Amino acid sequence: MTGGTAAGHVLAARILGEPHPAADLFDPNRFDARSVLEVAQDNLTVAKYLVGDHVAALWRSEKLDDLQPGDAQVVRVGGELVAAHRDEAGKLHTVGAHCTHLGCLVSFNDAEKTWDCPCHGSRFGVDGTVVQGPAVRPLRRGPA
């Protein structure tokens, strides 16, 4: 909402032919070479999670039967990575472990009881439903 208000002020000043101190902040042609390093670092972080989490998950030895009530883990079932959560009542919930946004592996958020993607912040319920985007599709159902 603040962006819309600021845009209104900048546009009004432009229409009236007056300068506005924030006009450069909203210029779509602005470029700051200093931001290139930050963008590169952000992309390296995404790559670290995208590759590193897959490698770590492939080396884990946990199995679905190893999960105790309240536990959650990304486990390998056959050749597939599965996000598994055993609720407090002992019921097992399994969904695909790859975020539907860009494919990073999700990890369990114990505080919220959600599967969270470390790459871009998508969050999913234990049943795979989208809680928060940028993902718009749910995690696929996993093996029972």
Question: What tags apply to this protein structure?
Answer:
single chain, 144 residues, Rieske Iron-sulfur Protein, four-stranded antiparallel beta sheet, three-stranded antiparallel beta sheet
Describe what is shown at a glance.
By secondary structure, the protein is of the alpha+beta class. The chain is built from 2 helices and 7 strands. The chain folds into 2 domains: 2-50, no CATH class; 56-132, Rieske [2Fe-2S] iron-sulphur domain (Rieske Iron-sulfur Protein, 3-layer Sandwich), CATH 2.102.10.10.
Q: Which secondary structure elements does this structure contain, and how are they paired or packed?
A:
Layout: H1 2-15, H2 35-59, E1 72-77, E2 80-86, E3 92-96, E4 107-109, E5 114-116, E6 123-124, E7 130-132
Antiparallel strand pairs: 1-2, 2-3, 4-5, 5-6, 6-7
Radius of gyration: 22 Å
Strand order of the largest sheet: 4-5-6-7
What number of structural domains do the residues give? Answer: 2
Roughly what fraction of the amino acids lie in strands? 15-25%
Describe the biggest sheet?
4 strands, antiparallel
| CATH hierarchy class name of the largest domain | Mainly Beta
Protein architecture, described:
With 144 residues, the chain is an alpha+beta fold. The protein is built from 2 helices and 7 strands. Strand 5 and strand 6 form a beta hairpin. The longest helix has 25 residues, at 35-59. The radius of gyration is 22 Å and the shape is elongated.
